[in-house]
Automatic annotation (TrEMBL):
Highest rank taxon of the organism: Bacteria
Name this protein carries in UniProt: DUF2306 domain-containing protein
Keywords: Membrane, Transmembrane, Transmembrane helix
Residues annotated as transmembrane: 14-35, 47-69, 90-112, 118-137, 149-170, 182-201
Keyword Cell cycle: no
Pfam families with a match to the protein in the record: DUF2306
Organism expressing this protein natively: Dawidia cretensis
Length: 215
């Protein structure tokens, strides 16, 4: 258990750096949609407000997330932490609603597997965020931190998907197979894998804090 905790501690700076870089990439890459150019919007043109709401809300969540987990900021400036948390929650809700509209309209041609995977992702994003907010309101701060972490894992899943979609191997797999099936697999793995890893680490940490049984 101590080994797991040490590895987790060593990996945090690397993880934070990766999160910042991926978030910056996602925001810059998605900013082109705000040009409102029909060529850029493509199939999203009839649902411009939905795609912009999804991107803007997601960007707010991406930027706000690291500040929420900044321990010294959280402890010294609680009001600021609450404001950032509220911005994060609103951003997620806007982004999730936009995603719901897009999945129910522009994604239909990619098949049931793709649609189900996106609905599951959106539902998980909303539920984990609402639970994080609820735990904060009821002052269950340890649970609040855990659910906020799960919510941010789902937030980052959208970024991971965007990067993986652009990889040549993804394009090759999509050309050789049903692209909807390939994308659905990427979506499921992008959040279930990190979520499983987080809960496994969390379980080890909780067990390591428990007192040893009396002999």
């Amino acid at each position: 258990m101590q080994i797991v905790n040490k590895l987790y501690g060593y990996g945090r700076p690397v993880g934070k750096t990766i999160i910042v870089l991926l978030s910056a990439f996602f925001i810059v890459h998605s900013a082109r949609f705000f040009s409102l150019s029909p060529d850029v919007l493509g199939k999203y043109l009839p649902y411009t407000w939905a795609i912009l709401g999804h991107i803007a809300g997601g960007a707010v969540a991406l930027v706000a997330g690291p500040f929420l987990f900044w321990k010294s900021l959280r402890q010294k400036y609680r009001r600021t932490h609450r404001i950032i948390g509220q911005a994060y929650t609103i951003g997620v809700l806007f982004a999730a609603f936009g995603a719901l509209i897009l999945v129910s309209t522009t994604a239909l041609s990619l098949g049931l597997s793709y649609i189900v995977s996106l609905h599951a992702l959106g539902a998980t994003w909303t539920i984990t965020t609402v639970l994080a907010w609820r735990m904060a309101v009821t002052k269950q701060f340890k649970l609040h931190e855990e659910w906020a972490t799960r919510s941010y894992i789902v937030t980052m899943a959208f970024v991971i998907q965007s990067v993986v979609y652009m990889l040549p191997i993804t394009q090759q797999l999509g050309a050789a197979n049903a692209i909807g099936e390939v994308l659905a697999t990427i979506i499921w793995v992008s959040w279930t894998g990190p979520m499983f890893l987080y809960d496994m680490i969390l379980s080890f940490q909780k067990r390591s804090r428990q007192p040893a049984p009396a002999l």
